[in-house]
Amino acid sequence: MSSTRVAIAGLGAIGRAVARRLSDGMPGLALACVAVRDVGKAQDWLAAQRIECPVVALDALPQHSDLAIECAPAAILDQICRPMLAAGKQVMVLSAGALLPRPELIGLAKAHGGQIIVPTGALLGLDAVAAAAEGTIHSVRMITRKPPNGLVGAPYLVANHISVTGLNTAKRVFVGTAREAAAGFPANVNVVAALALAGIGPERTTIEIWADPDLDRNCHTIEVDADSARFSLSIENIPSENPKTGRITALSVIAALRKLHAPIRLGT
């Protein structure tokens, strides 16, 4: 079996979980390198975990890897994707919301034979939505409910002077399109961007976002009406050490990696 060399850009909660799993060994996959802002901190963590791999610059990722996993702030998505895609390689993107205003990255992948992979992440039902999109989808609606601390600092809340501290009841803080939500909550609703890309696009996909002090999980519900099916799906994700991200997101990345060389591949 040929081995896919995997790079990880960013060693936050998700990057660390994926690095540990790759280091433990996954068939056909090898952790080739990591790229981070704080090199010294990364080297210390890798040494403590007994993980041997180099720390490299973002523009050096294509020299070391076949696939790069973006586990970094959305603001540096271009710096991760462009070198890899221009080299005809793959990038697994978790900041799906950052893809919406950057359609040129998809064009770059097409022009050079590269590929952008968006894993299911913290959502569910993307297979069903993608299948329904082969027919006609009439509407896609999403409702997200999060503990307030998972929304603190979102640009939309800051710009509109909306506070989510000290709540004693659920508060709807946003209603609009997936495109608007991805811009206003770049660290919170990558799920709706992935949903939009799988279905009817960011202008027709709508979302409500609620801050709910009674929750200790990130909850997402999607409702889809199509000519082939009508379905509603809900998921309650346990937050990781980063309250903006669910634990299942890292596991979704690992599952997507495992599919690359699996003898049987399940799902669309």
Question: How does this structure look, described?
Answer:
The structure is a single chain. With 268 residues, the chain is an alpha/beta fold. The protein has 2 domains: 4-122 and 248-259, NAD(P)-binding Rossmann-like Domain (Rossmann fold, 3-Layer(aba) Sandwich); 126-244, Dihydrodipicolinate Reductase, domain 2 (2-Layer Sandwich), CATH 3.30.360. Helix content is 33%, strand content 24%. The protein contains 10 helices and 10 strands. It has helices at 13-24, 39-49, 61-64, 77-86, 103-112, 126-132, 155-159, 178-184, 190-198, 247-259, and strands spanning 4-9, 29-35, 67-70, 90-93, 115-117, 137-146, 171-177, 205-211, 218-226, 230-237. The strands form 2 sheets. The protein has a 5-stranded parallel sheet, sandwiched between helices. It is globular, with a radius of gyration of 19 Å. The chain starts with a strand and ends in a 9-residue tail after the last helix.
Q: How much helix, percentage-wise, in residues?
A: 25-40%
Shape designation: globular
Number of domains: 2
Which blocks of ≥5 consecutive residues have pLDDT under 50? none
Concise structural overview:
Helix content is 33%, strand content 24%. With 268 residues, the protein is an alpha/beta fold. The chain has two domains: 4-122 and 248-259, Rossmann fold (3-Layer(aba) Sandwich); 126-244, Dihydrodipicolinate Reductase, domain 2, CATH 3.30.360.
